[in-house]
Q: What sequence folds into this?
């Protein structure tokens, strides 16, 4: 038994030092090489600081709405709902989101609604929506802000992030950046 316990204790101690001290120190040191010093992508607007890589809640008609969150946009407890398409409660939530979206955007047809506006992401904190998800909200925002739709479409075009290297992933728009730019339009 002594032959097994002492090597196990040594291995445990080595793993603690390696994975709880050395590895985090290396990652922290590497993060210091970047402009944000490993604190995330921050934006200052007015007297507030926002993390652009964490989804934010927007529900007013004058803003682009974010992707729904299964964790109420709480970054301390990220995670999906873990409910599948056969779960009745999940289907009710999706139907309620769809009904709300259609009510607030009366010119919109059910088939035009992209899935990212009615379903939460795996983390519940996705900061981005699809290009289609932004475009279908233009009429509502133009009406609420009393500005021309083409101004908002130009803003969408300027805020669209292209796929990585032009190949990997879809075009997307960061909702926080888009809404802050929208506030600066006037």
A:
């Amino acid at each position: 038994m002594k032959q097994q316990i002492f090597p196990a204790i040594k291995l445990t101690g080595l793993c603690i030092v390696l994975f709880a001290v050395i590895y985090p120190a290396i990652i922290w040191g590497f993060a210091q090489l970047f402009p944000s010093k490993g604190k995330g992508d921050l934006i200052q607007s007015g007297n507030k600081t926002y993390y652009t890589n964490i989804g934010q809640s927007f529900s007013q008609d004058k803003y682009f709405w974010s992707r729904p969150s299964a964790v109420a946009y709480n970054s301390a407890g990220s995670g999906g709902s873990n409910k599948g398409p056969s779960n009745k409660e999940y289907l009710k939530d999706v139907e309620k989101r769809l009904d709300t979206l259609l009510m607030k955007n009366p010119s919109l047809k059910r088939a035009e609604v992209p899935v990212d506006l009615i379903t939460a992401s795996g983390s519940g904190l996705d900061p981005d929506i699809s290009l289609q998800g932004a475009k279908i909200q233009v009429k509502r925002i133009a009406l609420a802000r009393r500005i021309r739709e083409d101004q908002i479409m130009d803003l969408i075009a300027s805020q669209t992030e292209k796929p990585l290297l032009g190949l990997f992933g879809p075009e997307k728009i960061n909702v926080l950046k888009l809404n802050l730019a929208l506030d600066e339009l006037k």
